[in-house]
Amino acid sequence: MLVAGAGGHAFELLDILISEGKTENLVFFDEINSGQVFQDRYPIIHSEEEVKAHFEKDPFFILGTGNPQVRHQFYKRFTALGGKLISVKGKGVAFSNFSSGAEEADIFNLCFIGANTQIGKGCLINTGAQIHHEVQIGDFTEVNPGAVLLGKVQVGSFCSIGANATILPKVKIGDHVVVGAGSVVTQDVPSEVTIVGVPGKIL
């Protein structure tokens, strides 16, 4: 299996893979830095040629970065090279029996996923985040640690919801929106803006 990225996010991802016993033939991809091993143990490859050769033996890859745009770029590049995206599920995650879409998203440790939620392809729900009933999240959106999305919230694609931010019930957030850490979003938010503060205001 290949992890697309070898930065800070990959450290936490690796701990989940170790706990799941999914480290056989594990390699990491890093085209920026020249290191040869990750965490002193796992090989790092650096070129698309190496990626393609790896996929001929094992086509599965995981997104090892948190940034929504970079996650999407890796997804497009690696699927074009023959890869197949898989997701990870951390320990202590509370899943409703009535959630959907989470099978295509990375859900890190100690998250809550409520009833009738829909989570898009390539999303990252990071440690301790809460996704409450009837929340809808588009593709490749990042929900950072401790963020809380309350009932019937709608979040578009390619958004980043900051650590410990709270989105109040029924609020709708467009695409490519950044919500600052600790912000409280009380009203609908258009696409392609940054919102910060309590209550949240558009910069």
Structure notes:
The protein is α/β, with parallel strands linked by helices. It has two domains: 84 residues, Rossmann fold (3-Layer(aba) Sandwich); 100 residues, UDP N-Acetylglucosamine Acyltransferase, domain 1 (3 Solenoid). The protein is built from three helices and 23 strands. It is globular. The model has no long low-confidence stretch (mean pLDDT 96).
List the keywords.
203 residues, alpha/beta, Rossmann fold, UDP N-Acetylglucosamine Acyltransferase, domain 1, seven-stranded mixed β-sheet, six-stranded mixed β-sheet, 3 helices, 23 strands, 26% strand, globular, repeat
Structure described in brief:
This protein is 17% helix and 26% strand.
How is the topology of this model organized?
Layout: E1 2-4, H1 8-19, E2 27-29, E3 37-38, E4 42-45, H2 48-57, E5 60-63, H3 68-80, E6 84-85, E7 94-95, E8 106-107, E9 112-113, E10 118-119, E11 124-125, E12 130-131, E13 136-137, E14 142-143, E15 148-149, E16 154-155, E17 160-161, E18 166-167, E19 172-173, E20 178-179, E21 184-185, E22 194-196, E23 201-202
Parallel strand pairs: 1-2, 1-5, 2-4, 5-6, 7-9, 8-11, 9-12, 10-13, 11-14, 12-15, 13-16, 14-17, 15-18, 16-19, 17-20, 18-21, 20-22
Antiparallel strand pairs: 3-4, 22-23
